[in-house]
Amino acid sequence: MSQLSDFVEFKNGRASIKNKEGLLDNLDKLVHAAVFETDEQKKREMLTGIKEAAKAAGAYPASIHDLYMHMGRSYPGFTVPAMNIRGLTYDTCKAVFRQAIKSRVGAFIFEIARSEIGYTKQRPLEYSTMVMAAALKEGYKGPVFIQGDHFQFVLKNYSKDPAAEETYLKGLVKEAIEAEFYNIDIDASTLVDLNQPTIKEQQKPNYEITARMTEYIRSLEPKGITISVGGEIGEIGKKNSNPDELKAFLGGFNESFKGKEGLSKLSVQTGTAHGGVVLPDGTLAKVKIDFDTLKVLSDLARKDYSLSGCVQHGASTLPEEAFGKFPETGTSEVHLATGFQNIVYDSKSLPADFRKKVYDFIKKEYASEQKEGETEDQFMYKTRKKGFGPLKKDWWDLPNSVKAPIMEELELKFDLLFERLKVVGSKDLVDQYVKHPAC
């Protein structure tokens, strides 16, 4: 905290800003120092201090639950983008907030998945602090939605030791909530057992564990906050979901769940795959999303179960014209990740020698992950997401002359997504339904 003491005063766990101009002038250096602090206790203190300073300036971590309950009653005609930021996180979040302020967007989510926490080397506290620090730097005020995406039960682990896998997920949930992730997606769709004779029996492991995890999340909620919890019925990249599966899951969940507030949304599979399907030359195959099914499932989730609607994963690599379909079909949320990563890696502003350095590292460290018959282009496209974490400092230390034009490219993408998903101007509705827990 000592590096912050010239700008921020801490009393009884609360921060007050005493030199805002000085804080903003030095914030980039303070954030960098916190991320790369090697003493874990000092790092935690620095990250927490920066996050508290951001809260003191008017941004605050929030749950989107109450807005989603409104969407369940009266769909507002927009789809909330949930964005996974894997690398250059602080800079990218600043770009998101700049565009959000420009277009008065309030309905947008920053998220990170269980797997990404590992390979990008961003624990929940670091990730939430990067988001909040970016809000502070850009002057964004109001609720900020930070989400644990795909807090997923790994089938291999669960089959070997169910109790250990559940304990691990509960530990991750607790860590995330302590870092002020007030939106969490539980993914037990990996445990669906298609060998069972009925759809309800197939979905039983999924809905029972999701109900149990939701109860656990509710037990950890801070005062005044109802965490938004999502479930999932169709593992992404597998067969498309259908109404019978939705009914079996949500019906079973409601029977199993012992609590007042259940789920706010449900993720389904309608034809996408995370990162897209890569062809041998490294280009992406065209993906055909079953928007008719997405509309049927979203309508059913709202009408019969009072959820906000359904969630689409793996959409960031779709063609631009596809994004306008999500609000038309009543999709409540869409998850976006690889498309942003592609902009960074494929930017003409990224020096060729730096890209080669990352690729050479990946070829050496992850050679065992290349499958038989997989071309180098396919392997690299699939694996380059793992170049952000181990080389994090190299990415962070790229000069501004490199990072600034890449951020401009990303801002154009955020602008397009906000417009196509119809969240432009959504700030007023968000402020109406999402209140500061102190209020």
Notes on the structure:
The structure is a single chain. This protein is an alpha/beta fold and 439 residues long. It folds into 3 domains: 2-56; 62-343 and 401-433, TIM Barrel; 349-399, no CATH class. 50% of the residues lie in helices and 12% in strands. The chain has 18 helices and 11 strands. It has an 8-stranded parallel β-barrel, surrounded by 6 helices. A two-stranded antiparallel sheet has the order 1-2. Helix 1 packs antiparallel against helix 6 (124-138). The longest helix has 21 residues, at 199-219. The two termini are 28 Å apart. The model has no long low-confidence stretch (mean pLDDT 93).
The CATH architecture name of the largest domain reads Alpha-Beta Barrel
> What's the number of helices?
18
* Helix/strand order: EEHHEHEHEHHEHHEHEHEHEHEHHHHHH
* Percent of sequence in beta strands: 5-15%
- Estimated helix fraction: 40-55%
Q: What is the makeup of the main sheet?
A: 8 strands, parallel, barrel
Query: Which regions contain 5 or more consecutive residues with pLDDT less than 50?
Result: none
Strands in their spatial order, largest beta sheet: 4-5-6-7-8-9-10-11
The level 1 CATH classification of the largest domain is Alpha Beta
Rough outline = globular
* N→C terminal distance: 28 Å
Structurally, the number of domains stands at 3
Mean pLDDT level: 93
Radius of gyration equals 21 Å
